[in-house]
Amino acid sequence: MWNIEEFVGAAGIAVEELAAYVDESQRGAVPVLARRPPGELARLLGLREWIAEGGMTPDAFREFLRCFLREGTRLHHPAYLAHQTASPDFPAALADLVHGATNNPMAIYEMGAAAATAEFEVLRWMLGKVGFPEGGGVLTHGGSLANLTVMLAARARAVPDAWDEGVPGDLVVLAPPSAHYSVSRAVSILGLGQRAIVPLATDELGRIDAGRLPDVSGKRVMALVAGACATGTGLHDDLRTIGQWCRERDIWFHVDAAHGASALLSPEHSGLLDGIELADSVIWDAHKMLRTSALAAAVLVRREGDLDAAFQQEASYLFYGDQGFDLINRTVECTKAELGLKIFLNLAWRGERGLGDYVAAQYGTAHRFWELGRDRPGFVFPYEPESNIVCFRYGTGDQALLRERLMDSGRFHLTSAELGGVRHLRITVMAPATDDKTLEALLDAVAEHGSPGGSMEA
């Protein structure tokens, strides 16, 4: 059994150390990331010894945790400008603690009635926001599983007997090259193969060209996938035009809004999602712009029955009698964490307006970076940002090498992406602490480590 006194002491240490970690991260008082090789880091943390011998005490735990946190990546840091992973708010962290202690895998209602009910209500709220008041949904561990689940639902609608009879060879999925890689993964997992993906025409920035949608006569289209927003650029497809085109042809319209759906909470930016209500399915990741810790991704469908048809299963120890409020028949996962609690607590603390203000602030900071950098010598910005993602180049040199030099300094964490076949630097503004001072410092550092003429300085 738990030693309650030991748990309370260790939990107190964890809270103290995490509070100090977040505080110094938010202030930018330490490097944003560490890049120690795994072998060296394993020795520093004493991982093999702890695994073999055990015996950790609260005092030893404090020292271990300090080192563990110091060697990670600080998503609360103003210079964290890399991946589309939330700088999590503390209510979501509290939900993780609750789940870690209670461990109610609530895909089966009897295993976690409170957690399942919280998920139901969060999903009801999300469905209302995307315009599916009569729809259905489920939370999954990440957008990749969410996209796979949607593709299963679309397949069930196009070929109801595919679960038993297999996938016919004439199904196709329409998607732009900018679609998230999980879409093409899902297509192959479903047995269609990459040949089934028909690439949609795009403009020079990778957005679907709604004026050049293909002739689908003679094709058996399972789904069309649009982005809101594209992972690489943060730009949005024309959902209304594409959605109307799909409606006229009875084609399943899927909107991958993993990153961008949270803009529905910002009156200033909700217009970017105009037409999302025409979709048959939407995915929405809370662990991006709703500030939950990873992972919590929603699958939302216009017709509830489409999601129920995605899976067919038999297991006498789980499926018998009236399944009632179980969610297990809607998801790949059997054991599923209390994901709804993380979203609920962030909403309960900050409110819909507070989360919308956060989205607007991060979008505003990204736009500010564009304003500060566009007139600097050597910098090229291929588009005005629509979200909190910005691509840019400095000079004509190796942008990947420039990124490595910036990261080696420990001062900045950013990514890169190809746009039109050309490598660009890329930032994603996630941390509330990122401000003009950070942005100016990044622009200065880029100019310091790169050369407008193309070569990199030693």
From the alpha-carbon coordinates, what is the Rg to the nearest angstrom?
Answer: 23 Å
The main sheet orders its strands as 2-8-7-6-5-3-4
What is the top-level CATH class of the largest domain? Alpha Beta
The portion of residues assigned to helices is 40-55%
User: Quaternary status of these chains?
Assistant: single chain
CATH architecture of the largest domain, by name, is 3-Layer(aba) Sandwich
Q: What is the 3D form?
A: globular
SSE layout:
Layout: H1 4-26, H2 38-45, H3 47-53, H4 58-70, E1 80-81, H5 90-102, H6 113-130, E2 136-140, H7 143-158, H8 162-165, E3 171-175, H9 181-189, E4 197-199, E5 220-227, H10 239-249, E6 253-256, E7 281-285, H11 286-289, E8 297-301, H12 304-308, H13 339-373, E9 379-380, E10 389-394, H14 399-408, E11 413-419, E12 422-428, H15 436-449
Parallel strand pairs: 1-11, 3-4, 3-5, 5-6, 6-7
Antiparallel strand pairs: 2-8, 7-8, 9-10, 10-12, 11-12
